[in-house]
Amino acid sequence: MVRKIVTRLLTGLLVLWLAASAAFVAIHALPGRIEDVLAGDLSYPGLRESIAAQWGLDHSLPWQYGRFLLRLAHGDLGISFVMQQPVLAVLGSQLWPTVQLAAAAGVLAIVLALVVATSTAGFSGGAGAWASRIASTLELAFTSTPVFWLGMLLLIAFSFHWRLFPVSGAAGWCALVLPAVTLALPTAGVLSQVMREALETTLDKPFVMTVRARGVSEAALRVRHVLRHALLPVVTLGGWLIGGLLGGAVITEKMFGRPGIGSVTLAAVTSQDVPVVLAVVLLAAFVHVVMSTLLDVAYLFIDPRLRNS
Amino acid sequence: MSDLPLSPVSPIARPGWASRVPVPVLLAAAFLAVLAFSMAFPRVVTPYDPLVSDVAHAMQPPDATHWFGTDRIGRDVFSRVIYGARYSLLIGLSSMIVSLLVGLVLGVTAGLGRRAVDEGASRVFDVLSAFPPVLLSLFVVTFLGQGIVNMAVAVGIAGIPKFGRVLRSQTLGVRRADYVTHAVTFGMSRARVFVRHILPNVLAAVPVIATIDIGSAIIAVSALSFLGLGPQPPTPEWGVMLAEGRDVLRVAWWPSVFPGMAITLTVMAFSLIGKFLARVYGVRTR
């Protein structure tokens, strides 16, 4: 058990270190001098000198690499070329709206998927079969829908037609509803598909028949017995969920004109503000790896079957 | 020997297969056939040029002459959706091919190599999938610059781990199959076993995996286009059309609803067919 946890934590660290190194290598592998690669089409007096100083370009490559890792470990993500401020400060000021959006969408997606999959999976006849069919069609439709289009449909219906929610901005919880729903539905579709599959496998297990024979109601059977067996494949999707929410936030924020990390990133991509993009990508990888490592470790505690496998 | 099937006979090969294919899959196939025809012969399907504007008839809602209405400068939306299929599908296809080729090489190497090689390739997949796909693509575009080709490459790179992992497990499965053990036992050379037995059986799974995953490539491509990082207006690409439609959303729903519907239906059709094929041929997709 302890060994498993330690191995998992070390793998997580390894992936983080490799991800940072990959970014370093990617930058150095591009043709041209690093100052030019990093500066792109930007140019103002002192830019190249400041890049050279920040990256330690007058030192040897291993020294630069060590310094790069050390800076990252200290949370020093460099200075934005365009905004001339530390990247961390730029991102920090925009963090809250994105966290709100991603958290709201994540919770909504999980709740939706839980409710829909648990109440409709695995029925083979009658109304249940129809509910199951309708639910899986909806899941397919939502997993196939680009988030930005979904956002537009919601805007057309709820902002322009019924005027229930504001079109853009981030003022108040009202402005959060449509972006969160937009981001949540495609995510919920995937989660619900995976959950349905796992529930159907579990519902075929012999213990289910035993529980049924005891006269336990269908609802209690599903919620109390089947669900906990079926949750493992869903929990392994935790990392994917975080990645999807962060990536989707970029598009959703652009769609609804919301401030946030996504908008900052997009602006940085268009203006080739490398330190900002690099920082966002590495931070996202960090959050992603830490979350999925923690989930895996947590699952060792929750599911005794995994400890010995 | 010759009448022993090497792989399970699929229901497709049996007579009356059409009755065994579920109706949604048939509908999906029909939709893709119509789409393919319109891509090949757009002029047969629509009389309007997707780029010619007719300001006198701008922002017309859908009617008998303009099935999907007209956009801000009077271009026919139906005709733009039809011509747009070429851009969206071909860019999606090319980026999927990028992921597929790199994923195939890495996945097969990992599946066949020693433990260290396998570990190494698997860490490559771990690292690539540590970055959220959209952000990884944005990162690549920042360095390569914007444009259709760079965008396709960027989306392709983000798709590598998915293909790599599936093809690795496919290779591992084939490598442990009885026919491979037999071939080795009977003294067939390693190279010959690889070319004759392992590679064909790994490649057999590729069309199925590709059909399932091209949908996510199409969505990713349209997303980057929507963000303005790929093809530029007036290109009738679906993501670009959606970005243009967003600007007039308040007054007109049709310039954005129809291209989005085209993306969703196309992606749904591919994934329905792909999942059906995976079930029929017993290909593991995760």
UniProtKB/TrEMBL annotation, chain B:
CDD domains: TM_PBP2. It comes from the Bacteria. The chain crosses the membrane at residues 20-41, 89-113, 133-160, 198-231, 251-278. It is a multi-pass membrane protein. One of its GO terms (cellular component) is plasma membrane. GO terms for biological process: transmembrane transport. Pfam families: BPD_transp_1. InterPro entries: BP-dependent_transpt_permease, MetI-like, MetI-like_sf. It is found in: Cell membrane. Keywords: Cell membrane, Membrane, Transmembrane, Transmembrane helix, Transport. Belongs to the binding-protein-dependent transport system permease family. PANTHER family: D,D-DIPEPTIDE TRANSPORT SYSTEM PERMEASE PROTEIN DDPC-RELATED (PTHR43386:SF1), OLIGOPEPTIDE TRANSPORT SYSTEM PERMEASE PROTEIN APPC (PTHR43386). This is Putative peptide transporter permease subunit: membrane component of ABC superfamily. It comes from Paraburkholderia dioscoreae.
